[in-house]
Amino acid sequence: MGSIPDPGEVTADLTPPPPSFDDFQRQTSLMTSCTLLWKELSDHFTTLEQNLQKTSDALKRKIQALDTETKDSLASLKKREVTIDGSVEIALERLDDRCEAALRSIDSDLGEVDDGDGLLLALKTFCLKMSSREFWRFVITKKKELDALRSQIPLALGECVDPPRRGERSEKGNDLGWACVVILESLIPVVMDPVIGKSRLMVTPMVKKRASEIAETWKRSLEERGGIENVKTPDVHTFLQHLVTFGIVRKEDFDLYRKLVVGSAWRKQMPKLAVSLGLGGEMPDMIKELIGRGQRLDAVHFTYEQLAVRKEQSALRAVIKCIEEYNLEAEFPPENLKKSLEQLKKVKTEKKKPVPAAIPANKRTRASTAGPMPPAKAGRLTNAYVSSFSS
After folding, report:
1. Alpha-carbon distance 109 to 309, whole Å?
2. CA-to-CA distance for 384 and 134, rounded, in angstroms?
3. Which ranges does the record mark as transmembrane (predicted)?
4. CB-count burial class (<10 Å; 0-12, 13-18, 19+) for 238
5. Cα angle 217, 223, 226; round to 5
6. CA gap 286, 309 in Å, rounded
7. Which of 233, 248, 253, 383 could bond 177 through an S-S bridge, CB–CB 3.0 to 4.6 Å?
8. Strand (E) or helix (H) holding 365
9. Which residues, in sequence order, are CB contacts of 273 under 8 Å at separation 6+?
């Protein structure tokens, strides 16, 4: 008889049961889930890597731009420092010449003023003798020769020992805005550095301090005169030209400058003055505001000036590219050109809310709610710019 197998004994020939279809489906589903998860993680890490690479590239470009800007700034500062001695030497030579000319002019007679040469001689005589009052009186009698004055006054002011002080004294105590503006405009080429140009003005700290005090006094007097809306345009023009001439423009006052420019936009010098004040980037918004006010002709003038600034940018880029392409950096250092280009590009405007349309006004509209301007002659003869200052 065969032996009965022990129930607890494991037989070697027993095989596990074959997997069921459900087990196969579960394993398939698990593999699919793992594959999808792996792909998702792989895509995620790839995206992270790409973002990190983009951020790294952006940081590198920014660092390079900052390095370039720092290098240009240091080069510009070094050049300014190096040119100080040369500028001072030129100024001292001019001072000696002016002193000698002033001594010679003491005994000379004024003579007849019947042509351009006579006009220049008379202006130079007053400047050499440092007679601010006589200089001013002579200028206001020559209003009909305004074009000749604009061309001759800079030459005459160049003979002064301290041209900015002469201009400041001519302003003080006078209320003829047109003459103040002419003298202030004529000072700009005189006070420019003879080596590096208008990027450095040869104005003494004492004169600049006094000019700043005058500007602050004028700003404080706005409320006393009823706000920006009630300020006369010749007064505004003289104030803004005063800031540009003495190099005392302040960024924190840009909003005030903008309101003043828009309120007196009908003046033909305002577009160029706005650029000189650093408001070139505000031009698009000012143009929209002028159109909204119905001052379309003034908007055209501002648009023309904006296009002129763009052309200047294109010209600067072309010159810089030419210098770099032909390796002319040694003969023509491009630092000042790049700095000028950066200054033009820096003034970017932020998007602002559209200005609500106002009632169309005539050409001599002042500010947003003001009525028509008084006649041109009345405005020119009653400027309160300097007379409103405290002595």
Report:
1. 47
2. 21
3. none
4. buried
5. 130
6. 15
7. 383
8. none
9. 237, 240, 241, 244, 261
Nearest one of 152, 150, 95, 151 to 128, comparing CA atoms: 95
Q: Which residue has the tokens 């005589």?
A: 125
Q: Which residue has the tokens 């809306």?
A: 229
What tokens appear for 156 in the block? 């005459």
In angstroms, the CA 202 to CA 282 distance is 28
Cα–Cα distance between 139 and 234 in angstroms, integer? 17
pLDDT tens digits for 204-246? 888 889 989 989 999 888 888 888 888 888 889 999 999 999 9
Structural tokens at position 192: 């420019």
Please state at what angle helix 146-157 crosses helix 177-191, rounded to 10 degrees.
40
Average pLDDT, the chain: 75
Closest CA to 270 of 279, 261, 281, 278: 261
One DSSP character per residue, 159-174 reads TSSSHHHHHHHHHTT-
- Retrieve residue 167's tokens: 């201009």
Distance CA 126, CA 121 (A): 9
| Residue of higher predicted confidence among 390 and 116 | 116
